[in-house]
Amino acid sequence: MTTQRTANGLPNGRNGFRGEGELETSSSKEADAGVNGISNGTGTLKLNSRRKVDRKKSSPMLPAFMVSAPGKVILCGEHGVVHGKAAIAAAIALRSYLLVTTLSKSKRTVTLRFPDIDFNHTWNIDELPWATFQQPSKKKYYYDLVTELDPDLVSAIQPLVADVSPHKPADIRKIHQNSAGAFLYMFLSLGSPSFPACQYTLRSTIPIGAGLGSSATIAVCLSAALLLQLRTLSGPHPDQPPEEARVQIERINRWAFVYEMFIHGNPSGVDNTVSTQGNAVIFQRTDYGKPPSVKPLWDFPKLPLLLVNTKVPKSTSHEVAKVGKLKKMHPVLVGSILDAVDQVTQTAAGILTEESFDAESEECLTRVGELMTINHGLLVSLGVSHPRLERVRELVDHQGIGWTKLTGAGGGGCSITLLRPDVPREKLDRLEEQLDREGYQKFRTTLGGDGVGVLWPAVLKNGMDEDDRGGMEIDLERFLSAEGNEGVERLVGVHGGGGEREGWNFWRVEG
Ligand SMILES: Nc1ncnc2c1ncn2[C@@H]1O[C@H](COP(=O)(O)OP(=O)(O)O)[C@@H](O)[C@H]1O
Ligand SMILES: C[C@@](O)(CCOP(=O)(O)O)CC(=O)O
């Protein structure tokens, strides 16, 4: 299923402000105690705003808050990364936004509201299979590393999942049921029967299922939201030491991976990792029982990239399974193709991290571009391209405009083109017109930028009347009625329609 969206071309921004209502939870010491298994993660929560929360009096409702996470592109190494090879991925400016609203204490429901995919479902918290999830042999804590789904727990939520969207067509129902299952698995693993009634409402500016990691952004938003509600995260705030920020990022990423496992079956974890951390990373997971190796690339060059969406729907799990099957049939041959993919990634990583790399130099870009061409060829040989992706190569590469490869799972979805520096403007204009005529959607996007961010409470300054009264509250109605991607960005965007926006805070791990 693909949704058409427009480019927003937002620049990356860094929000160095202290937010209107900044969230400070337990000290890193307390947080680490949690890691060591001593605390069950009820750190203290301090809100520096006029909406002060005094936890001593009672356990008050949390204010509505928002979480946001970016989509990504894989520059090289997709599919190889599922088989233990390295990949390079970078965050993009398109993002998902999750509004978390706590309901009054008389309510006992939890609602998932995903208007982009027309999904809305409410469960009664008291009727969820807590007993199964809380058995000592099954119970997981927020600091645990979960590397596979427990079949008994998956079975326990099946009846609830089966009830979802009964009147929708089968393909849509499957997407809804997957979303419901992934959420319930995470909610029941992290939560408890006393969890407050709440609503999770998500809107995204990322094309769905186009290879830009849309599902991972939802995983990251929900993981961060639940961990914040449980008061197990410290920050984010601008003065947070990078080491402490890194612990929070790692925690969010672990649970986001659980959600991704439910959606995709066998994800590498690269999407959720880059979405949580932001910027760009070299990612590799050689042993699924252990955390992956993640090497941040802080000075990732500003590559001149064109992103093209074929608008052909694809399924990541289908493409990943296809490659898995091919490998089973031809282990040596496919093994050597995956080794070659790894070589491409390692070589590209070397080039992109050279101090002398210049993103405007023809010679530097050619070296990276050639690697992208090789990477695409290897992906074609794994059977994950699509005629619409090959058509982009015909229009771009064969016209000497740049170097193109598919990005993400393939089988449709998006391609990325590294543009040659000397292409005449008219030639680029003609290409863009041709792409438009043929029904492609194109984005000029900046790579890198912030990972998961928090707006606590959900109040923003938008240069409107409300600002005099302390900012505009982002309530459910406003969030749901924001029009299109532009409306969402204008209302809540971390970049606020062009610049940096006060209120949003990020865990900055750059040391
Ligand atoms: N805006 C959205 N709202 C709700 N769910 C979404 C949204 N975007 C993506 N998803 C979920 O992610 C799935 C697509 O994930 P995936 O196939 O990995 O695509 P992508 O390449 O974009 O990551 C959808 O089927 C849906 O479950
Ligand atoms: C094909 C793969 O390497 C990337 C998939 O990316 P996406 O779901 O198409 O955004 C799968 C994975 O890494 O889990």
Automatic annotation (TrEMBL):
One of its GO terms (biological process) is isopentenyl diphosphate biosynthetic process, mevalonate pathway. It catalyses: (R)-mevalonate + ATP = (R)-5-phosphomevalonate + ADP + H(+). Its main location: cytoplasm. GO terms for cellular component: cytosol. Residues 190-273 form the GHMP kinase N-terminal domain. Residues 37-47 have a biased composition (Polar residues). Residues 364-434 form the GHMP kinase C-terminal domain. Gene3D superfamilies: 3.30.230.10, GHMP kinase, C-terminal domain (3.30.70.890). Belongs to the GHMP kinase family. Mevalonate kinase subfamily. Pathway: Isoprenoid biosynthesis; isopentenyl diphosphate biosynthesis via mevalonate pathway; isopentenyl diphosphate from (R)-mevalonate: step 1/3. Residues 17-32 have a biased composition (Basic and acidic residues). This is Mevalonate kinase.
